[in-house]
Amino acid sequence: MKPRLLYLGIFLACAGLIGFGLILQHKMHLEPCPMCIMQRYAFVVAGLLALLAFLVNPGKILRFLFSLLIIVASAAGASVAVRQSWLQHFPPKVAECGADMEYMMRTFPLAETLPKIFQGSGDCSKVHWKFIGLSIPEWALLWFLAFVVVAWVAWRKK
Q: Which of these, 78, 42, 74, lies nearest to 147 by C-alpha position?
């Protein structure tokens, strides 16, 4: 399989996942918590990088750069997914719902906002939807790990 098609696959998967997240939000009325939003951003970044790599059809050096950036975006998303999965399996004793992401980004500098997001809130620890026994952040983690593998394979292809 050509690297270009692997990048297209990552883009299409990211687009589908964002679309599914929007369906869960708007049709099933599952409001995303700050950690869910951070995972969405990671999917958007990885997907846009993959789309750009598909369109550019890069040589070896640029393929390394695109793959590396996709891996970094996916690793960032995976770290948020791991933290949220942890919160879901071991919820805090006192569930406090913090401010939403938009308010935090407008009010606090990024250096203060990121730690608040990773702390999670009462909403981040609740499981609102499962498929085959896995929650949304657990599925997101599997997808992020798959993108890491596919981006690495795309880089290593000759």
A: 74
DSSP annotation string for the chain = --HHHHHHHHHHHHHHHHHHHHHHHHTS--PPPHHHHHHHHHHHHHHHHHHHHHHH---HHHHHHHHHHHHHHHHHHHHHHHHHHHHHHS--SS------HHHHHHHS-HHHHHHHHHH--HHHH----EETTEEHHHHHHHHHHHHHHHHHHHHH--
**Predicted confidence (pLDDT) per residue in 20-66, tens digit:** 888 888 888 777 777 888 898 999 999 999 999 999 988 889 999 99
What pLDDT, on the 0 to 100 scale, is given for residue 30?
A: 77
Domains of the chain: 3-88+99-156 (1.20.1550.10)
> What residues in the chain have per-residue pLDDT under 50?
119-122
